[in-house]
What we know:
- The protein is an alpha/beta fold.
- It has helices spanning about 10-20, 30-40, 55-60, 80-85, 100-115, 120-125, 150-165, 190-195, 215-220, 235-245, 265-270, 285-300, and strands at about 5, 25, 45, 70, 90-95, 145-150, 165-170, 185, 195-200, 225-230, 250-255, 275.
- Helix 1 (about 10-20) packs parallel to helix 12, helix 2 (about 30-40) packs parallel to helix 3 and helix 5 (about 100-115) packs across helix 7 (about 150-165).
- The mean pLDDT is about 95.
Amino acid sequence: MIRILVTDGMDKSGVEKLTSAGFEVVQQFFEPEDLKEQIKNFDVIVVRSATKVRQPIIDAALETKRLKLVIRGGVGVDNIDVDYARLNGITVTNTPNASSAAVAELVLGHMFCLARYIHISNVTMREGKWNKKNYEGIELSGKTLGLVGFGRIAREVAKRASALGMKVIYSDICGEMPGCDEFKFHNMDDLISTADFISLHIPASKDKVPVIGERQFNHMKNGAYIINCARGGIVDEQALLDALESGKVAAAALDVFEEEPTKNEKLYKHERVSLTPHIGASTVEAQERIGEEIVSIIIKHFE
Length: 303
């Protein structure tokens, strides 16, 4: 029997479908040292963000040569040593389509929070404060949204932002994207200096160097807004704090952090930062779609 280890949770209906199809599914999180032992007994491992499938885990799996498939339930695979796994005959894949709408809606939600002070007024009102005069916001309509990276999620954000009356521009490592004529391509520096709102949609770099640091903040418009619902580490958190304190950045929204759970107290207590605990794909609908895509990948792989 094909054994599947699900370490970071999976939609119940997806587990039921796998079980009905004759697979054995074990749902349990393991710390790295324990995972090194457990991985030897499974044909498939399904992870999200919490579990890291690094070289030592893969080396342990190679002792029994049982592991055939690693699936990341989500968009990125930067928590998996992909090249090393594939070099050793292990297939690595993800579910790139399932969570795009969910993440895009969270990005827009954070933008509304920043523009209308929803994040902080919700806190101060619970403290009994009526700070109405402090919360004169701005409208998103007419503002320029710059998207750094223009993959599936960014395009979903672009469609929604455009419907709100925003001007959408983008940069991408692949250059100008075909079939996206309604959105204007800019190089990274021009985008940063032009956009009112900047939203990041790129993976973490292999060398872990932030994409948005002191130099990039200095080139932004005064009073720009930045949103990161992509990957922790692509924004230098100290540089962000400095930009917030100087007023260069009006406000920021973060769903991902350099360290998770974040211990950066200056960041998570800052009144001009809107925060969520890495919940980009955490909707009922997205989890159902992720589960369905995982089931499809596994069945197709072993048929």
